[in-house]
Automatic annotation (TrEMBL):
InterPro entries: Frm2/Hbn1, Nitroreductase, Nitroreductase-like. One of its GO terms (biological process) is cellular response to oxidative stress. Residues 8-98 form the Nitroreductase domain. It comes from Enterococcus durans. This is Nitroreductase family protein. One of its GO terms (molecular function) is oxidoreductase activity. It comes from the Bacteria.
Length: 109
């Protein structure tokens, strides 16, 4: 088995996020950008975009998400939703991934 396949096979999700991070925001941003750039894409389209949030912007996102989900979630289920969102908010930052639809449309033409 290759190193890459072993890495995929042995990877695990981390559900208890925290803020004990040893890299600077600039180092994290550079690492995320490099991972996106070097990730394979169909026809090397490089259509992935990301918004990286730290600090107040990160916390505001999860507060806005909670308020947006409140009217959509049954009252009896909302405490579970709040707990899950609090877990995300407890992290150091957030990476929001998007697809550049102009790139995708260009491939379709």
């Amino acid at each position: 088995m290759t190193t890459f396949t072993n890495t995929l096979k042995n990877r695990r999700s981390i559900y208890h996020l925290g803020r004990n991070v040893t890299l600077s925001n600039d180092e994290l941003t550079a690492l995320i950008k490099e991972a996106i750039k070097e990730s394979p894409t169909a026809f090397n389209a490089q259509s992935t975009r990301a918004v990286i949030l730290f600090g107040d912007a990160h916390e505001k996102l999860w507060e806005m998400t909670e308020e947006a989900l409140r009217p959509l979630t049954p009252a009896e289920a909302f405490p579970n939703t709040q707990n899950k969102l609090a877990g995300f908010k407890n992290g150091y930052g957030t990476v929001l991934f998007f697809k550049d639809t102009d790139v995708v449309k260009g491939l379709q033409e």
